[in-house]
Design brief:
Blueprint (H helix, E strand, L loop, with lengths): L1 E9 L3 H11 L4 H9 L4 H19 L8 E19 L5 E17 H13 L14 H16 L1
Antiparallel strand pairs: 1-3, 2-3
Helix pairs in contact: 1-3, 2-3
Length: 153
Amino acid sequence: MDVISTYKFARVSARKARDVAREIQGLPVSTALDILTFTPRKAAELIGKTMKAAMADAENNFELSVDTLFVKEATIGEGPTFRRFKPRARGSAAPIRKRTSHIRIILSDDSHVEEVKAEKAAKAPVEEKEEKKAPKKKVAAKKAAKQDDEAAE
């Protein structure tokens, strides 16, 4: 069972948040929360909030045990960019881009992983066919001509 939680328009750059999200992908929820707690970045706090929301959904809505959950996927998408302008010399202005991102956390329980492994094991292995390619006609003709020349000498 997959539990999805999304935090949209988070006021953090997607590039900076992806570094944190890569650290927790595939880990059990308890380990991932420990890592996020001790990661000194703004994105870690926002991803932690999203993960706690997903854990609460799993426990209350789907009656799943938090101990069996792991982070199946942690994706960070780019949100809209807020544009501001800073006054510069001689009446000009420079843009300030306040970037946002969409944080998406997917938690899954262990039973799903076992099902996927069973499906992969059930598939029959594909046999590899070895086909022998015939030589090209031009090459065969050149070889035959070469042999005729050598025989004539």
